[in-house]
Amino acid sequence: MNSAEKSDVAAKRRLLAYTLPMLLFILFLGVGSWLKAPGAAPWRAAPEFWIYPLQTFLCATLLVYFRRDYEFHALRQPVFTIAVSLLVFAAWIAPQQFFHFAPRLAGFNPDTFAGSPALHGSTLLLRFVRLAVLVPFVEEIFWRGFLLRYVITESFETVPFGTFSWLSFSIVSLAFCFSHSRPDWPAALVTGAFYNLVAYRTKNLSSCVLAHALTNLALGVWIMATKQWGFW
After folding, report:
1. Is residue 159 part of a domain?
2. pLDDT tens readout for residues 24-44
3. Which of 158, 146, 154 minimizes the C-alpha distance to 205?
4. What integer is the mean pLDDT of 132-136?
5. Does pTM top 0.85 for this prediction?
6. Angle (deg, nearest 10), helices 205-226 and 185-202
7. Which domain holds residue 154?
8. Integer Cα distance of 142 and 161 in angstroms
């Protein structure tokens, strides 16, 4: 294999590293929606209880496999990053918390297993691992690590992380928004735009992951406190 062929193989591997975990994540969401049938057998009535753990395990396996292909560096501007994470968290809870919108009670409810402490605890633990660890890595690697640069040029790895263009900013903000369910669109649009700003300000993928993780962790705690399961 000559140097050109090696370079081509490396480029294809990087493309897979930045996109495959997200594609697998979305595939599991689609399977869950397709299987869900209220009133059917338990594994179909609430498929999220077994699909989410499987999704978490397989996506995490891909992240570990491709770990050397990602550009993670020491955190930059942690105060700015934390401030953004809290602003985004506020955007998510504002309609219900401050403007008295109807609570979103239907969703993934770990209290389904309240009668079994071990099952309830493990379900809750896995849900938080997915929410505050897996999702930030999978989504930030794809949205900020890949797509924000890919819109600028197909050879995305040649674009320094955090390079700004209005086109990539707009496309990624909107795509991030529409990847969420319709009730989430306003908050998701704000989220996509602010996480893009973290990328531009810090030039650091690790900071984007941290902002996303802190937002999701705060949101998870708020969900548990308010029982508004529709937020996750």
Report:
1. yes
2. 999 999 998 898 888 788 778
3. 146
4. 98
5. yes
6. 150
7. 71-231
8. 12
